[in-house]
Design brief:
Structural class: alpha/beta
Number of helices: 12
CATH class of the largest domain: Alpha Beta
Strand content: 15-25%
Largest sheet: 8 strands, parallel, barrel
Strand order of the largest sheet: 1-2-3-4-5-6-7-9
Number of domains: 3
Length: 456
């Protein structure tokens, strides 16, 4: 008999204040983010201390209350300890609900200076065994983000034997190396992924010895465990994490919405394909479940032929033609998706690599001359190609890589300043004596911040 699936937190990425608000608006129980220093996504927009405070206020004011986790998950040099302390202090002052760390120096500083900050072990710590989790428990951690390479049987076995919360990634970009152990970027580009500066060398083109043509042998597919959420919950996973702090608020909104609806049982199969296609128009590599069911062959986890965002498939090249006496070339296809002017298209080229992409400036129904602003799915359509378009062979796959309709569907509502302040219960003690008056104010949730004033 299967164990009932537990309620699990949906944890979404927040590379900016807007992305955080998008995640909360579209159903995230929690968000994780970084400040300008000591974040493993140093090139994300990130938040400053003031924006962090506003976001925590907004998240805590929502019903049900949402959580905000601060990342301080890079390796830290000795000369950076003062700025690390500033980062931890900013998180404590803002009232974040947890601190995601990698370096044991951050652990020691947090335990000593901010003992009430819950500690979460970053996936950069490469924890992949029960013994590793038990060691973290002894260090005072309350949650561990397990290495992404673990199969579900190992995840379940660990979750059964520890009181710590178990968090796993369910969607997003993957590293070719084992979690937290990549030195590729540091050695080739002088930019360490363990310090938030990954140059993504694994996405570059290489030629393997004795192999032709060049390809992308280290370029991983994106993790996508949308169909495995119930199994992960039954395995005892407490938090389901989406990667993407470098992604746009639109992407965060869409991916959070898809996973929220699936978790809530509100994404039937009849709607799932459309929702996934909408998400793929914003950003998509080919998907993989990685090693959730055990070790997989390279072609199941690596996309060696192409790199970067593709989109969702809409058809194949039927022809490229010109009107008589006119210079414009028209791409002809039967579209499997409704298209609008200014949508983006990409065509996969025979040589591989990055697809050829362009925005729809002009389109018409096949055999017509009148230009259209919108064309329904199933139509035979002709789309004007830009002057720099390469030869596009018949049969080449065509993808929709940006959609005006999807952008309208995921409109973002930013909170008003008044919605970013939280009133917390304050216990006040007034003492009258012959020598004067003493007033002590004690926050119920944070008694260590009690303040006493005296007057003669």
């Amino acid at each position: 008999m299967n164990a009932p699936a537990r309620q699990a937190e949906l944890l979404a990425p927040a590379g900016s204040f807007e992305a955080a608000c998008a995640a909360l608006q579209y159903g995230a129980n929690a968000v994780y983010l970084g400040l300008p220093r000591h974040s493993a996504r140093a090139e994300a927009v990130n938040l400053d201390a003031a924006a962090l405070g506003r976001l925590v206020g907004h998240a805590h004011r929502l019903a049900p209350r949402r959580s905000v986790y601060l990342t301080a998950n890079t390796l830290v040099r000795d000369d950076e300890l003062p700025s690390l302390l500033d980062t931890l202090a900013a998180g404590a002052d803002a009232g974040v609900d947890g601190l995601i760390v990698q370096d044991l120096a951050a652990v020691r500083l947090a335990r000593h200076c901010f003992p009430n900050l819950p500690l979460h072990a970053s996936t950069q710590m490469a924890v992949h065994s029960l013994e590793g989790v038990q060691a973290l428990e002894e260090l005072g951690f309350s949650r561990v983000v397990l290495a992404r390479e673990l199969p579900i049987a190992a995840i379940a076995a660990i979750a059964r034997q520890t009181p710590l919360e178990i968090e796993v990634f369910v969607h997003g970009a993957l590293c070719y190396a084992y979690s937290g152990l990549c030195l590729f970027s540091a050695l080739q580009a002088g930019r360490s992924g363990n310090r938030g500066q990954c140059a993504y060398c694994c996405r570059e083109r290489f030629t393997a010895a004795g192999a032709e043509p060049p390809g992308y042998p280290f370029s991983m597919r994106d993790l996508a465990l949308l169909d495995r959420l119930d199994a992960l919950r039954r395995a005892g996973v407490a938090s389901l994490k989406i990667e993407g702090r470098m992604k746009s608020p639109l992407y965060v909104a869409a991916v959070t919405d898809v996973y929220r609806r699936r978790l809530d049982g509100a994404l039937p199969e009849t709607q799932a394909a459309e929702a996934i296609a909408d998400l793929q128009t914003i950003f998509s590599r080919p998907w993989t479940e990685l090693h959730l069911d055990g070790p997989q062959p390279p072609e199941r986890v690596i996309d060696a032929l192409a790199v970067g965002h593709r989109g969702t498939p809409v058809g194949t090249v039927a022809a490229v033609r010109r009107d008589r006496g006119a210079p414009t070339r028209w791409l002809a296809l039967t579209t499997g998706r409704a298209l609008e002017k200014h949508d983006g298209l990409q065509v996969e080229l025979p040589a591989g690599g990055r697809p050829f992409g362009f925005g729809i400036a002009q389109m018409r129904l096949a055999g017509r001359t009148r230009l259209e602003v919108a064309i329904p799915s199933g139509s035979r359509v002709e789309i004007a190609l830009p002057d720099d378009a390469p030869p596009l062979p018949v049969g080449a796959p065509v993808f929709c890589s940006a959609s005006q309709a999807v952008q309208r569907r995921y409109a973002l509502r930013l909170p008003h300043e008044r919605d970013c302040r939280v009133a917390e219960p304050l216990q006040v003690a007034l003492t009258l004596g012959a020598d004067g008056v003493r007033v002590t104010g004690t926050p119920v949730a944070r008694p260590e911040l009690a303040v006493t004033l005296e007057a003669a």
